[in-house]
Amino acid sequence: MKNSIKILLTLVVLFLGFTVQAQSQIKLGHINSQELMAAMPESDSAQKTLEATAQQIEQTMEQLQVEFNQKYETYANNLNTYTDLVRATKESELQDLQDRIQQFQQTAQQEIQKQRNKLFQPIRDKATKFINQVAEENGFTYIFDVGSGAIVYAAEGTVDILPMVKTKMGIK
After folding, report:
1. For 89-145, what is each residue's pLDDT tens digit?
2. What is the CA radius of gyration of the chain?
3. Tens digit of pLDDT for each residue in 40-80?
4. 144: closest CA among 59, 17, 28?
């Protein structure tokens, strides 16, 4: 019986020793990847390109809206003079134009999202590459991205690696 207790106590001590040793080897860090990407010079040019595309789309949208408003105003002003056939044709034209406008809006939103992904994916990839390099060079076990909102708690023992990554990338 005494041997069983000694063996059990030895196992508990060994287990606790391994647990303490494992905990001391874990090194946690955190970074705000959105802040890092905003500091990267590539982000400015990507944002400007995206804004230029959005501005072109907005101008086209305004032109379509002006065209619709003009046609509607002409229709409304001349409604009493139209025959049934002309009135139906004008209404069909207005409906078609309105449908084109809605389709353009949907396609434009998809196009902007597609271009955003195309422009910012290389920037995200570069940031991830440097984050991984800093994490490996400094022996981190985990790096949490607080910019994504996924972390609800960050202990004081975690290290913000943003300054290290910026330094590695040459960003001030």
Report:
1. 999 999 999 999 999 999 999 999 999 999 999 999 999 899 889 988 888 888 888
2. 31
3. 999 999 999 999 999 999 999 999 999 999 999 999 999 99
4. 28
**Residue 96 buriedness (CB in 10 A; 0-12 / 13-18 / 19+):** exposed
**CB-count exposure of residue 56 (10 Å: 0-12, 13-18, 19+):** exposed
Tokens describing residue 148: 């994504």
**Alpha carbon distance 15, 140 (integer Å):** 24
Query: Integer distance in angstroms from the first to the last C-alpha of the chain?
Result: 67
Instruction: Tell me how far apart the alpha carbons of residues 157 and 78 are, in angstroms, rounded to a whole number.
Output: 75
Domain-wise residue ranges, the chain: 2-169
- Predicted TM-score (pTM) of the model is 0.68
Distance (Å, whole) CA 112 – CA 67: 23
Sign of dihedral through CA atoms 119, 124, 127, 128?
negative
d(CA 124, CA 87): 55
Q: How far is the C-alpha of 124 from the C-alpha of 172, rounded, in Å?
A: 18
